[in-house]
Amino acid sequence: MENKLFDNIQSEVKVGFVLTVAERVFSVISKDDERYPEGREALDKCWLWVESHAVTGDELYELIDNADYTGISEFAEEEEEMNIARLWSLLVDAVAYTSWEAFNLEKVKYLPQSLEGIHADSITIFLNSAVETSFLTVDEIERMESVLHDYLCTDNKILINREEFIKLF
């Protein structure tokens, strides 16, 4: 799945789209799962960046990987059920992409090493991974992309609110 839709739109819209996909995937995790609060916090902080830039790239990155080994990347590594491990990996990718966009906006000279491989095409890679996990289908992704394209082609205001993004799709 190759995608040119994201080439010329602002960072917050790109991140909002990625987070909307991540929300759909994360909805599979039971609220009773002991890791759920950390996953929810990671998504909430990413949305906070989209809405107000009230968190930094570094704060977002700490949700993935930190000195205490309590970041959400640990959940993906420790999970024995492959589909759930993939789900956590997708969440890590969504937070990493958000952190990368935040660092770029902050004009940080040196990124954490694990973010250095992120680039403009990372959204396409993320979407392909979401499809490979079977949490979303190609048709669902294409429908979401079509809705976003149609929205951006109108004179509507630019989306930067979690509820507006999710409601749109």
Layout of helices and strands, plus pairs?
Blueprint: H1 11-26, H2 36-52, H3 57-64, H4 73-78, H5 82-105, H6 122-132, H7 138-152, H8 162-168
Helix pairs in contact: 1-2, 1-5, 1-6, 2-5, 3-5, 5-6
Report on this structure.
InterPro entries: Imm6. This is Immunity protein Imm6. The protein is 62% helix and 0% strand. The chain has 8 helices and no strands. With 169 residues, it is an all-alpha fold. Helix 1 (11-26) runs antiparallel to helix 5 (82-105) and helix 3 packs antiparallel against helix 5. The chain is globular, with a radius of gyration of 15 Å. The chain has one domain (11-168). The chain starts with 10 loop residues before the first helix and ends with a helix.
- Helix and strand string, N-terminal first? HHHHHHHH
Query: For the terminal residues, how far apart are their CA atoms?
Result: 19 Å
- Overall number of structural domains: 1
Overall residue-averaged pLDDT value: 89
Tell me about the biggest sheet?
none
Q: What's the number of helices?
A: 8
Protein name: Immunity protein Imm6
InterPro entries: Imm6
Pfam families: Imm6
Quick gist of this model?
By secondary structure, the protein is mainly α. It contains 8 helices and no strands.
